[in-house]
Amino acid sequence: METEFIIWFQRTGAPVHWLLRALSEFGPSTGFGVLLSGLYWCWDYSAMSRVWFVNLTCSWLTGILKLSFHTLRPYWIEPEIKGLTHASGFGMPSGHSLVAAAVWGELGRHWHRLKVWILCGGLIAGVGISRIYLGVHSVAQVVVGISLGLGFLAFYPHLESKIKPGFLRLDLRRQLLVLLSCSVLACGVALLTRWLVSDVELPQEWVAMALEKRPEDGIINPFSLHSPIMLAGMTLGVLGGYRVLVVWKQDRNARDGRARILRFLLGGALVGPYVLVSRRLMRGEDIVVLPFAAALSVDYLYGLVTGLLVSLVMPLVFNRCRL
User: Fold this and answer.
1) CB-based contacts of 32, cutoff 8 Å, min separation 6
2) For 175, what's the count of Cα atoms within 13 Å in the CB-facing half-sphere?
3) DSSP characters over 76-125
4) Burial class (CB in 10 A: 0-12, 13-18, 19+), 51
5) How far apart are CA 68 and CA 148, in angstroms?
6) Mind listing the pLDDT tens digit for each residue in 195-205?
7) Would you put residue 150 in left (φ > 0), alpha (ψ -120 to 50) or beta?
8) Are 66 and 90 in contact (CB under 8 A)?
9) In angstroms, how far is CA 44 from the centroid of its own chain?
């Protein structure tokens, strides 16, 4: 039944293909990262650091759940379903739907206005619908993703109220040690999860069909630990960088609209080239394939440096420029 629905949806949704592709970008993507970076730089460091935590935690959790369930994507097995976007990981749950529900829900809670809630709700639904149309998720995978994202959104304030007061009473060195320990633990969980599914074999029919439909993506490798390891490093970079910024008393928010615009333009001009070059390198186009441990180390360091660049380095640059 779901297969027939996706086939029908791809046929009837073709006239609004561009809109559905655009909606997908409001989940985890380069554009989504640019948006969250801009909000952090231009709006409120404290509130947007919470949004970044939600984003990174849910993205990491998605990677762990995908490995645990190791279920297929619709276009891997159904000849008539097209794969209309890049997707290399397993299908359950939909990471775009999970992260979008949690992040847009957190943004709605921050501004807490009816119009904002309507916009955020529309984007959450739009991201889920777009993932079905693009052939990378079933309806069930999207529903599970949204449900988990909303569940995390409901649980997060309770968790924060229990942990944050004690954490803030620590000095900076101990705070950073706690964050480092959590980051290492996240890497350990990812490695353990991968080991637990090491006996699972990816059906060659899935690999062949995915490659046939999207040869530009190369051979799929849904068992890869690139994403969860990189996210563990980035979480340390973002949260650690923010705590350093606060302790150094450098967490000065933009004064007015002009400063916000200039911060966004300057941040994009400095961080943009780094992201473009590093993403190309991380895809292996300009470097040789590294051994397993070395590759994971590069993933972790890439996430760490990117997180520090966004959360600490650029705010210091803005302060230096008096923005």
Assistant:
1) 25, 26
2) 20
3) HH-TTS---S---S--SS-HHHHHHHHHHHHHHHHH--HHHHHHHHHHHH
4) buried
5) 15
6) 898 888 888 88
7) alpha
8) yes
9) 20
Token pair for 41? 């730089």
Domain ranges, residue 85? 2-320
Angle between helices 45-69 and 226-247 in degrees, nearest 10 = 160
Check if the beta carbon of residue 46 is closer than 8 Å to that of residue 39. no
- Cα–Cα distances (Å) from 294 to 43, 168, 281, 301, in that order, read 37, 34, 14, 11
What pLDDT score was predicted for residue 290? 59
What is the Cα 125 distance to its own chain's centre?
17
C-alpha span between 29 and 183 (Å, rounded):
22
Can you list the residues of the chain whose pLDDT is less than 50? Answer: 284-288
Contact (Cβ atoms closer than 8 angstroms) between residue 27 and residue 100: yes
Scanning the structure block, which residue is given the tokens 């380069």? 30
For residue 115, give Cα distances in angstroms to 43, 109, 175, 311. Answer: 19, 12, 37, 29
pLDDT digits (tens, 9 = 90+) for 2-31: 787 888 888 887 678 888 888 888 888 878
Query: What pLDDT sits at residue 6?
Result: 84
State in Å, rounded, how far the first CA of the chain is from the last one: 55
Q: Amino acid identity, residue 165?
A: P
CA–CA gap between residue 100 and residue 95 (Å, rounded):
8
Question: What CA–CA distance (Å, rounded) separates 276 from 318?
Answer: 22
Total number of domains constituting the chain: 1
Residue type for position 259: A
- Tell whether omega for the bond before 93 is within 30 degrees of 0, i.e. cis: yes
